[in-house]
């Protein structure tokens, strides 16, 4: 298939074959690079969030441990003694307990509120100096959960002394309540956002979102809806698309707070350099393709079109159209080639026209020669007949033959045209048959010719030699009553005149020999009458025209004269 393509198609495919592997390889490389960067983004986001969650969990764990260990302080234990009733002593112990709790807050990274409840003394000591906290026995009667709880924008943790009193706070000697505000976590989120490129926040399915101070609240609200719809695990990540921007969202569950630490990062923000590089590459390829097509178009206009024009010209020339000329107004190498082609075509046309004219002259000369040969042949037969009739003293036959002979020469000399209508030929044959019927009393003839054939043209003296042979070589040797039939028809554009006799006939070998002799050159052993008729038909109307010999149902020979008039040129 490639071998049948022209040069222009091969060059176009070659350019495409060069570009396609480059595009495929770069696309594959770009995808691999994007995949690696995406994995790094996901890993970095997860690691950063894990670090933030570990820091928060560490602080919460320290607060939880302090809530458990504070009950072991000597001042608190002494404050719980029932015999310690002196007011001064209780004020001193309360001040000592507050001082230690303040020292812990000062040493801690987080600002928290520590409140101690003494069920036996019905007293409360708290680091919240601005709030008077009464002892509410109803508030402290319900079992305490084992985790931090969220209420009033604060996270709260309860411990009891002893720890077995968590289920029944009424049996506790000491209840410790540690709380810190939610904005404490917001401050940590602000610090993490400053140090990293993420935008972390905390999410709870019931309480909502705790975000940093500069967060995109609308976007976080949408992410919150995505998190509510997703089946959350302990730690996972997923990709989502919001506002035509794709994000990678990573989350970790806090076992202490029962909230989720969430961070997200826009993928396109980090992939923008790779995307810009990819777009620049594709733009370069597009420019290269445009330039390639411009070069291909130039080659097509300057090379391919002239080549196609030259190929079409040579094909028309090979098909025999020697009038073809190539037109190229551009001044390049092809214009010189077209000029030489036009000169060659003109010279070939002149030579062909000269040869054709010479062939026509030879053809006309041959037709004249063939026609001139038949006229003496008929004249000889007529003269011999007149001589014989004169010997027999048959004046009527002599007169009839003489009149027929005069009509014949008048017919052949009245026009220089080599063609005659079938009607004129039949008139001549009718005269001839009448003469022969006078000579032979045992001969009859019939003529049945359709009107559409009567006006058709044939070479002059085409029918008479065939009828003459039928009488001389068919009817006369038989010595019995003879019959000659002439009829015509048209089939598939071919005109056919059928001439039959009831004479002695011929064998199949003789008929085949006569048919072969018609196609050969004339020699001494051949009769020239029917040979001339066949040659004139072939020259005048083409190769399919001529005479065909066969057996006749009448017993003699059948001769079909066939010609196609439209081939006459």
TrEMBL record:
| Start and end residues of each HAMP domain | 301-353
Question: From the Swiss-Prot or TrEMBL record, what is one GO molecular function term?
Answer: kinase activity
Which keywords does UniProt give here?
A: Cell membrane, Kinase, Membrane, Transferase, Transmembrane, Transmembrane helix
Show the stretches that span the lipid bilayer: 280-300
Q: Where in the cell is it found?
A: Cell membrane
Looking up SMART domains in the UniProt record yields:
HAMP
Annotated PANTHER family: SENSOR HISTIDINE KINASE YPDA (PTHR34220)
Q: What is this protein called?
A: Sensor histidine kinase
